[in-house]
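Re: the request from the purification team.
They wanted to know what the chain is likely to look like in 3D before they choose a buffer screen. I agreed to run a prediction and write the result into the notebook, where they can find it.
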Amino acid sequence: MALKFYLLKIKKLIRETSDTLSISFEIPPDLKTIFEYKQGQYLTLKVPVNGIENRRAYSICSSPVLDEDLAIAVKKVDDGIVSRHLNDSLREGDFIAVMPPMGNFIVETNPKYARSYVMLGGGSGITPLISMIKTILTVEKKSKVTLIYQNRNIESIIFRDTLEKLAKDYAEKFKVIHILSRPSSDWTGLVGRLDRNKVKQIITDELGDKVYSTEFYLCGPQGMMQETEISLKELNVATHQIHKE
């Protein structure tokens, strides 16, 4: 079946950080089924810029099990024609062409599960992970989730307020470990980058022997993804436990 774009109305825009915008869509009743999705999937947008049609994929940050509007987050990058256009020019009430959800980077949830999850993200890689986190915490009452999240500084932490609220509301089930590469002088958390040694240290300290029964989900810059995967394999984590975007 041919892939098809649908015009969706922008319902709400939220400035998450100085360079990241979350975009929620208004889904007409007749398209509700078509735009059903799973946590971790993405949307493809068709965006004209200066008369040229561009297509870009952005991960969904909302959760399908919560009463949330379908939403994505777009981080502006220096040479990103579309990301800059969306961040600078998009307005609530505008219409944009969107393809139905796609992607296999998902976590299947079940109320009966009592699992251990570790999410490792960097920058805008948090987008599909936060969709997974919100869904797991809602559906799997006995599961526990740890997020290890790399950013430049406090101001660049996407969904910072949401993560803090989740950590407070699910204190026994959800833990966030921030690591900043260029923190301010009053930062008391972890400093540096998620290289293989840092990942192994954090995983060992947090999980111990539970590392062999934990599901790992990775999403972020290519270098971080490579280092993280190497570190997990050096810890003898089975390949089937490692899931990456």
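For the purification team: The CA atoms of residues 233 and 239 lie 8 Å apart.
Please add any questions underneath this entry.
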